[in-house]
Specification:
Low-confidence stretches: none
Oligomer: single chain
Strand order of the largest sheet: 1-2-6-3
Radius of gyration: 15 Å
Largest sheet: 4 strands, antiparallel
Shape: globular
Length: about 100
């Protein structure tokens, strides 16, 4: 069985993700890079165990690879899976506090 740390790979820290984390929103949204094999139930359970919050909704999307080129060398970026987590009203993840 996989541990929660195997499912949640890293948080996504960008300007767009900060808009969803805003303190004035009733239901904050956080974005994470997750394992490609993980389903919504596994992601929800992992977030609740790691951060001790209540997850109300999990949206996932697969980010497809894009062609890249550096000089004459060509290749592709790796594909990965992203999860957008919506928390219960009043909950927040303290890990993201103070980053902005």
């Amino acid at each position: 069985m996989k541990t929660p740390q195997d499912i949640i790979i890293q948080p996504i820290v960008s300007e767009k993700s900060y808009d969803g984390m805003s303190a004035d929103l009733a239901h904050p949204k956080y974005q994470f890079r997750v394992a490609e094999y993980a389903n919504k139930a596994q992601i929800k359970e992992a977030i609740e165990k790691i951060f001790k919050v209540t997850v109300t909704k999990v949206n996932t999307t697969s980010v497809v690879s894009k062609p890249k080129r550096r000089g004459v060398f060509q290749g592709y970026t790796p594909s990965w899976k992203k999860a957008v987590i919506t928390l219960k009203e009043g909950d927040k993840i303290d890990f993201f506090e103070g980053i902005a």
